[in-house]
Amino acid sequence: MTPQAQVIAFTNQKGGVAKTTTTLNLAAAFVESGHRALCVDLDPQGNLTMSQGIDPDSLEVSMYDVLVHDVSIREVVRKREVDVACASIDLAGAEIAMSTKIGRERSLEKALRPIREDYDFICIDTPPSLGLLTINALTAADKVIVPVQCEYLSMRGLVQLQNTLSMIRENLNPDVEIQGILPTLVDSRTVHAKEAIELLEENFGDQVFASRITKTVRFAEAPVKGMSVLKYDPDGKAAYAYRQLAKEVLGNGKR
Length: 255
Description:
By secondary structure, the chain is of the alpha/beta class. The protein has helices spanning 19-32, 47-51, 63-69, 94-98, 107-112, 132-140, 152-171, 191-204, 218-224, 229-232, 237-250, and strands spanning 6-10, 37-41, 77-79, 83-85, 121-125, 143-149, 177-184.
């Protein structure tokens, strides 16, 4: 049997936690270490698509067509630094368009089946909500990585996410599990960030990755140039952090 890609969903219903940044840069780190990776952009904002220099408004077909009209996902994949299954603003209407579809929670899982042998990793960027698009991602995923901004409010959302995950396990995908919780946008100068990480580790123990993604202007600059941080600033701290995270994920969660 040909090995199947590991499907990882990057989820947090709170926006602005570096979800897209993490999806793209971890995939780029996988590619850099010789693996085949696909990023699936499920966010109507299309930020991941744009971060690889693709204009969402110029697309004839996008993930919307894959989910709603069963178009083959191969038709929406663009080869860039990593392969990207592109999003467009149409995705905003996908939840309503899919609402009458039988098996609507499994649309993405079905779309990924034919290409799971083409990749080692499929990384799914989700919108900042726990709606139908995110449920599709969690239903298709083997593992979930949760980027969490190190501040108290951001961490409260983890409880909601855990509740959603247990519903998904019960009804749609019994095997999905959290691969790890990733502290992002860490401002190492503040006591608050330190306390937030301690609180995370108290509550989630070894589910918290050892890698820390610190705040840097590079994360804002790289997408403008249509590239990952690893390509934009290969020797910088941010690139190093994502390479470390890739090692943790490849080491099967050895912290």
